[in-house]
Amino acid sequence: MDFGRISRRHLLQGGAALTLSAATGLRPALAAETTIGFVYVGSRDDYGYNQAHAQGAAALKKLAGIKVIEEEKVPETDAVEKTIESMINLDGATLLFPTSFGYYNPHVLKMAAKYPKNRFEHCGGLWSEKDPKNAGSYFGYIDEAQYISGIVAGHTSKSGKLGFVAAKPIPQVLRNINAFTLGARLANPSATTQVIFTGDWSMPVKEAEATNSLIDQGVDVLTCHVDGPKTMVENAARRGAFVCGYHVNQSPLAPKAYLTGAEWNWEALYPKFVKMIQSGESIPNFYRGGLKEEIVKVSPYGEAVTDEAKKHAEEIKAKFMAGDYVIFKGTIKDNKGNTVIAEGTSRGQQDAELEKMDYLVEGVLGATS
Amino acid sequence: MTTEAADSVQAAAAIAPAADPRFLQRHGARIEYVLIPGAALLAALAAFGGFIALYGKNPLDLYFYMYYGAFGTWFSWQNTLTRAAPLILTALCTALPAQLGMVIIGGEGALLIGALAATSAALALQAMPPLVVQLAMVCAGMAGGGLWILLSGGLRHYRGVNETISSLLLVYIALAILNHLVEGAMRDPASLNKPSTREIGAANMIGSIPGTDVHWGLVFGLIAAVASYILIYHTTFGFAARVAGGNIRAAKIVGLSVGKLILTICFLAGSCAGLAGMVEVAAVQGRTNANLAVGYGFTGILVAFLARQNPLAIIPVAILLGGLNASGGLLQRRLGLPDASVLVLQGIIFVFVLASDALYGRLSLLKGKS
User: Fold this and answer.
1) Could you report the predicted ipTM of this complex, rounded to two decimals?
2) Considering CB atoms only, which of B68, B69, B192 is closest to A356?
3) pLDDT tens readout for residues B49-58
4) B172 close contact with A: CB closer than 8 A
5) Tens digits of per-residue pLDDT, A193-207?
6) HEC states along chain A?
7) A256 and A319 co-located in one domain
8) Do A104 and A175 belong together in one domain?
9) Residues of chain B found within 8 Å of residue A77, distances taken between Cβ atoms
């Protein structure tokens, strides 16, 4: 009896949501309560990539008239298509944030073509003219924040040996390693970054091994680019090394060892997107930015950061905020001695060549293959 | 949930006219096969409901959303069937060798190798008509997966290596080969931040069953499951396999060629998982990359054990687990349960069904005795 009552109530609700989303387009639905769906590839409390997005989602929950639904640990297979469809069909979601890189092609593109009235905002994809107009991709130039981390790391390290625990030698990761190293060498021209690739985005055992082995080699400041920096941060702090965070602020995990970190600023960007839609403005299909555009940010400095390091970092950060600082400016040599960016060439934030980066700069110890 | 409830109602109805003890003597064992797992499933759901109540959620909401997310709407059904499709094929990779008493748990590796082989075939035959490419992909996928599990079978037969361990370790070798090729020799230079092979081309994709958005992998799975059932229960080859599985020494004494049985069955088992890999490429991903390793092979082991290694029973069990996975998202969204709660339920079901094994042949009611 009880069961029947509940099911009827929920069915009516579900049915109402269905007819509502079918009968009305995106705009009118937004006028009333808007449902926004977030899909994460990992767990939303991973102190990393997914948590950064979940923090952005949490910022949306505070807005009036917005309902946020979330699903975590959705693999990059047709499971994500089904999750998106389920959010649209069963929950009436009109705006979707599939946040993992591997969701874009083919899954998000397929769903965008199938549901032309819904808006899809994908993190990391490279939207191009041939892709559906109701899909968009956004991403941040987090290498700018890594550069600031590098400056702080270069000032803090006593041995001049820095460590980087990285997932895969792909352009995004290489760009972070290179920016971190260039920043560190700005502070200490003889600093080196030893990099270890673990081979995948979430390999806690290998990340711990890499952290320990870097510290055994004399590294005293570490950072990383993996999905969940927790393993590296906790292990490095336990061994007495300093860390620079990534994705989100990990200082609660290691308050003494945490220097600063490169963070996403999705909690600033997502409300901006929603306001753009609410005011009838269209979100550019290809949306990018760095520190100045408030898509990335730098963690507050930890207690171990010296005044000198702070001053240097703030000085460069101010230049980024003014929009006139270029990290990848010639002459830059790779770690095999070849010139990769010639003298006089300046590759700014949005330069497409940087998206194809396949080298490690001078000062990085390690190889891409 | 409701199907199981219906099952037990049917079973109960079947018992009711059983005033005739001969009826029970004849059919008691069959009724047990439905009644015991059905009851185990209901018990598991009840236990999970209790667990959820401790979490402060209403178990009735839980059951409703599970039903709604898995079977409540046509969309939910399609969601469930899409998720069930690869599980049927990977479950066969464990269920077929189980007839010989072998425990193969490396379906994931065969799936990956099958996917790689199918992708290679498609990329090599780009100039051919789609039908030729698709057939070549099926053959390559099945051969690739088959040979992979054949390695385990061969190691067992010729060198006495435990097939459970070898098939599991071969999963990691398959994954390493896949990553090596995808990030090296077979990498599409345009796949910058997600190393992948080149795409097989939209024309070569096998698409969905007309009128649905469930891909053809479901039909492949159904055909493979029925064919396996016929092979195991209605052919002399299958009979020989079951004899060897029951008592290998007796099988040798009566002159059965046990080695041939092991190798053939291992090849067939692997080719099922390889076919699942081919379907993932040709119906879902369109290319090979690390996204293929999402654990279909491992969930297949669970399906095979829950189905008590019966190829036909694999179909409903795969649909049930597909439904659990399909409703998992709704549980996260509506009840705010963590993703792991679906894993907890799968674990509880697994334990209850395995524990219920002890009941077979012990229900005196079903023996036709008073």
Assistant:
1) 0.82
2) B192
3) 998 898 888 8
4) no
5) 999 999 889 999 999
6) CHHHHHHHHHHHHHHHHHHHHHHCCHHHHHHCCEEEEEECCCCCCCCCHHHHHHHHHHHHHCCCCEEEEEECCCCCCHHHHHHHHHHHHHHCCCEEEECCHHHHHHHHHHHHHHCCCCEEEEECCCCCCCCCCCEEEEEECCHHHHHHHHHHHHHHCCCCEEEEEECCCCHHHHHHHHHHHHHHHHHCCCCEEEEEECCCCCCHHHHHHHHHHHHHCCCCEEEEECCCCHHHHHHHHHCCCEEEEEECCCCCCCCCCEEEEEEECHHHHHHHHHHHHHCCCCCCCEEEECCCCCCEEECCCCCCCCHHHHHHHHHHHHHHHHCCCCCEECCEEECCCCEEECCCCEECCCCHHHHHCCCCECCEECCCC
7) yes
8) no
9) 280, 284-285, 291-292, 294
